[in-house]
Amino acid sequence: MDFVAESKNDTENKSRPLVVAYYTVGTPYEHEAEVLKLSLESIGYSYRVYGVPNLGSWQKNTQYKAEFIKEMLLRFPSQTLLYLDVDAVMVQAPKILDNLKADIAAVHFANSGELLSGTLFLGNTTNCKKVVDEWILLNKKYPETLPNGTQAWDQRTLKMAIKNIPEVSFIELPQSYTFIIELTQRRCPEVTSPVIMHTRGAKRFKNIINGKKGYAT
């Protein structure tokens, strides 16, 4: 992993989580990182953005998220973290996260039960680290598909990891904290003020990473 960028005029405001993100070198996600950084700077959030090697497939690159987060928890042991997928844009300050007391906080998408991992608050607690370690193990156990036959997307293995650590303190975040362009607008038309917007990099770039043409479904 190569250090890429840190926030300018970094005030290290301990009441706010430090934003961490990564992109795969040599892919379109490099450009997404620049947009994310600009949005964070406009709101005054501290961040660290890293470039990582392309592991050869979208699935492997996204499952790397758990290992990246573990490294960030170890690198910043006294700091709560806000992990963002690099295709995200911070539109407003996520004030709910200021001084939040939780192991993990995230959004379940539009009453579907699907955990979303593009915006993750990480309390950097013992239980938080237990979940991340379990997440890494599950990704290694299920690199492609889960026992039920569905694809082993990182958010699915994360949901399993949280379930496997029953003592974890999990807080549900509003839909606006993982506002997915077009999908949130269609399923939750009442949510009109995004806090953290996700621009569907997977749809735009998944096939490119996998050596295919066209948009992913």
Report the top-level CATH class. Answer: Alpha Beta
- Largest beta-sheet details: 7 strands, mixed
CATH topology: Spore Coat Polysaccharide Biosynthesis Protein SpsA, Chain A
SSE pattern, N- to C-terminal: EEHEHEEEEHHEEHEH
Q: What is the count of distinct domains?
A: 1
User: Based on CA inertia axes, which overall geometry fits?
Assistant: globular
Uncertain residue segments? 202-217
Instruction: Please state the second-level CATH architecture.
Output: Alpha-Beta Complex
- Oligomerization state: single chain
The total strand number stands at 10
Tally the helices: 6
If strands are numbered along the chain, what order do they take across the biggest sheet? 1-3-2-4-7-6-8
How far do the termini sit from each other? Answer: 30 Å
Question: What number is the mean pLDDT?
Answer: 87
By CATH's scheme, which homologous superfamily applies? Answer: Spore Coat Polysaccharide Biosynthesis Protein SpsA, Chain A
Share of β-strand residues: 15-25%
Could you walk me through the main structural features you see in this protein, from its secondary elements to its overall organization?
The protein is α/β, with parallel strands linked by helices and 217 residues long. It has one domain: Spore Coat Polysaccharide Biosynthesis Protein SpsA, Chain A, CATH 3.90.550.10. Helix content is 34%, strand content 22%. The protein has six helices and ten strands, in the order ββαβαββββααββαβα. The protein has a seven-stranded mixed sheet, sandwiched between helices. α5 links the parallel β9 (179-180) and β10. α2 (58-75) runs antiparallel to α3 (126-141) and α3 (126-141) packs across α4 (154-164). The model is unreliable at 202-217 (pLDDT under 50).
